[in-house]
Specification:
Strand order of the largest sheet: 1-4-5-6-7-8-9-10
Largest sheet: 8 strands, mixed
Helix content: 25-40%
Number of strands: 14
Length: 372
């Protein structure tokens, strides 16, 4: 049975500012609602850790770093603010929400899980887990006017997150945690936006990522038709993690590169990330469905196989598919808000609104990167 259809924004504009204005006008009501939740979330998390945040100052600090690295991203955010009729610093804060929450000392229990099968016919996907109160604060999008047109999902007011561009370069997204995380560098969501809007190849995408001066940690998994790698980003540097000898990448929310793992904070506070990684690694070891589909020319890890692998709850040994408790305060109610499958050869995403356990043939929303 089909579920509700998410809004798809068609963002256009021949300059960054015009694209931002178009986004702001189309998503004005959603941005306003999302900001109200984030404003409360920042205060709640900081208060729970006996911290006080100056959110405007933190947001503008990340703007300075972004302006030095990619000023066009700042122009685009300025356009969003104008189109939405909101102060610029609130749009900057939305795009820097990961960095601001790092300053607040946010726990991240119940975060994302990613699977990719690399090689010829690379395919993959992920669960996107986030706060249940923000379940209506995201949308599908296509964006044209930059060097590369792209499609994907993102939150209201945030320029990009998970997606694939017209060159067949896709990105998947998992937050990490490092002891040095702060709100001083380029926000990781803006780094993903830069890859989607500019990278014409696997090498260009990796170059953008490893050259980004970030101050909060994430792993962005790059997928193209014939290659895949995870690029771990942290204040301490970056590392490229290749698929295993069978071509699989399994990512949850801890570092795999030894040099960066030395500063690990997320996994030490919430070790369930290791449980999810272990369960998924065991599942792909025994999963042989890709052999037949690959031999017949189909995707190595299509939506059906992805759902089977990602559907796991606490009784299975790890909560990959996350369900929020009925009660609890803001900041403690995690849920899988979306399940995303990507096929870079087709420049296509398929998005299910919710966790993999509720996905079915009729619930996937297809989205293809437009051509300029």
């Amino acid at each position: 049975m089909s579920g509700p259809r998410r809004t798809t924004l068609r963002i256009t504009g021949d300059t960054p500012r015009r694209r931002g204005e178009d986004r702001g006008r189309q998503a004005r009501a959603g941005i306003t609602r999302a900001w109200q939740v984030y404003e409360e979330l920042f205060a709640t998390v900081a208060g729970g850790n006996a911290r006080t945040l100056d959110v405007p100052a933190l947001a503008l600090r990340t703007v300075r770093a972004t302006r030095a690295w990619a000023p066009e991203l700042v122009a685009e955010m300025e356009g969003v603010a104008e189109g939405a009729g909101m102060p610029f610093w609130t749009i900057a804060a939305l795009n820097a929400r990961t960095e601001i929450l790092a300053e607040a000392g946010a726990p991240r229990a119940g975060e994302c899980s990613t699977l990719v099968r690399g090689g010829p016919g690379t395919t993959g996907g992920q669960c996107w887990d986030w706060h249940r109160e923000l379940a209506d604060a995201w949308h599908l999008q296509t964006v044209t006017g930059d060097a590369q047109a792209f499609a994907g999902i993102t939150e209201h007011g945030i320029l990009a997150k998970i997606g694939v561009n017209e060159a067949g370069v896709g990105v998947l997204f998992n937050i990490l945690g490092h002891a040095d995380d702060a709100a001083t560098g380029v926000p990781v969501h803006l780094v993903a936006r830069q890859v989607l809007g500019t990278a014409g190849s696997f090498a260009e995408a990796v170059g953008v990522l490893t050259g980004a001066p970030v101050s909060a940690s994430t792993v962005i998994t790059v997928v193209t038709a014939d290659r895949a790698a995870s690029v771990e980003l942290a204040p301490a540097g970056s590392a490229v993690v290749a698929p295993d000898d069978r071509g699989w990448l399994v990512r949850t929310n801890h570092f795999l590169a030894p040099a960066l793992a030395a500063g690990e904070s997320r996994g030490r506070r919430e070790p369930e990330t290791y449980d999810r990684h272990r369960l998924l690694a065991e599942r792909v070891l025994t999963h042989d469905g890709w052999r037949g589909t690959e031999a017949s020319g189909g995707p190595a890890l299509g939506p059906d196989a992805l759902v089977r692998l990602l559907t796991a709850h606490r009784d299975d040994g790890a909560e990959v598919c996350c369900h929020a408790p009925a009660e609890g305060r803001l900041g403690s109610r995690w849920a899988t808000l979306a399940t995303v499958a990507v096929d870079p050869a087709e420049r296509c995403l398929r998005v299910h609104d919710g966790g993999p356990c509720s996905a079915g043939p009729e619930t996937w929303m297809p989205l293809t990167a437009p051509r300029r």
